[in-house]
Design a protein that fits this description.
This protein is of the alpha/beta class. 41% of the residues lie in helices and 18% in strands. The chain folds into two domains: 196 residues, NAD(P)-binding Rossmann-like Domain (Rossmann fold, 3-Layer(aba) Sandwich); 102 residues, UDP-galactose 4-epimerase, domain 1. It binds nicotinamide-adenine-dinucleotide (NAD).
Length: 307
């Protein structure tokens, strides 16, 4: 069975490709390599069909969609700060790119369409924590707005066609291959700083909480969603809140090092708390995260050290 992964050369997309290959799928990926890397694909590149190009290019997407049964739409402009500086660019990739993917998928009558959205960005400053999928979309950044809009286009297409879909809303994903030089991905950023003997910069008091999910647990759930589309949204997290201070404590234990911690002023727009209710994924698919935070940090530390 041919499956298409957009953004397959990125952090999450590359793990998804690897998982799909291990399950016997024929995997095609489309990526413009704007943030994706060839090195993310080193271990399994020969088994992939790689199309270099943008999801906003109609002819590229049309070619990529040939004989595809499941579409995993992972590609995105995924930086909040870029979205604030250049909302038109963000909207072009995240909204127009998603519309292009959807139109082509409907034209080719694919069996299933998975849209990777974002839990933290779409719910914004949620009233209910852990936040269930029924909570309102209240984004507080252009990135969250474009993701919410992408979700609404998916829902719209399903209303006017036979499209079967799932919307996956990940929490804070971490693990090997996450870029430690990005603005997000605190686990990767901190472990890389520890490796280089540099101090850890915490924005604010370090009591902000997030829901950290190991990337392999996420891709397990994404594949389940692709195989069993039920036309609804699905949170992907752990249901547990972890503060930045607690992360640092775990990193001290895992690495055996004692990095200096510097508190910088809080970043405006950062939510105080974020955590996802994962009852739905558990009820529908029996899915639950298998990799505990300490183990996931160990695996990420091993990767950072060998990089
Ligand atoms: N990392 C997280 O914690 C997290 C959390 C929630 C949601 N997400 C979502 O997961 C998805 C993957 O994020 P990631 O962390 O792996 O980021 P990433 O930057 O590593 O991956 C994004 C991929 O999309 C590709 N891409 C970007 N624009 C493209 C375009 N126009 N055409 C084709 N390819 C394009 C990039 O080259 C890259 O390979 C994104 O949709 C992101 O919004 C990530």
């Amino acid at each position: 069975m041919v499956v298409l992964v957009t953004g397959g050369a990125g952090f999450i997309g590359s793990h998804l490709c690897e998982k799909l290959l291990s399950e016997g799928y024929q995997v095609r990926l489309v990526d413009d390599f704007s943030t994706g890397k060839e090195s993310n694909l080193t271990l399994f590149k020969e088994d992939l069909e790689i199309i270099k190009g943008s999801i906003i290019d109609k002819s590229i997407v049309k070619t990529a969609m040939k004989d595809v049964e499941i579409v995993f739409h992972v590609a995105a402009q995924a930086s909040v700060s870029i979205s604030v500086k250049d909302p038109m660019y963000d909207a072009t990739i995240n909204i127009l790119g998603t519309i292009n993917m959807l139109e082509s998928a409907v034209e080719k009558d694919v069996d299933s369409f998975v849209f990777v959205s974002s839990g933290g960005a779409v719910y914004g400053n949620a009233q209910v924590i852990p936040t269930p999928e029924s909570s309102p979309r209240e984004p507080v950044s252009p990135y969250g707005t474009s993701k919410a809009c992408g979700e609404m286009y998916v829902e719209y297409q399903a209303r006017v066609s036979d499209l079967k879909y799932m919307i996956v809303r990940p929490g804070n994903i971490y693990g090997p291959r996450q870029d430690p030089f990005g603005e997000a991905g605190v686990i990767s950023i901190f472990l890389d700083a520890i490796k280089r003997g540099e101090p850890l910069h915490i924005f604010g008091d370090g009591k902000n909480t997030r829901d950290y999910l190991y990337v392999r647990d996420l891709v397990d759930l994404i594949v389940l969603c692709g195989e069993n589309p039920q036309n609804q949204a699905m949170n992907a997290g752990t249901g547990k809140e972890t503060s930045v201070l607690h992360l640092v404590e775990i990193m001290r234990e895992v690495t055996g090092k004692n990095p200096q911690v510097i508190h910088d002023p809080p970043r405006s727009g950062d939510a105080r708390r974020s955590c996802l209710d994962i009852t739905r994924a558990n009820r529908l698919f029996g899915w639950y995260p298998k990799i505990e935070l300490q183990r996931g940090i160990q695996l990420t530390w091993q990767w950072i050290q060998n990089k």
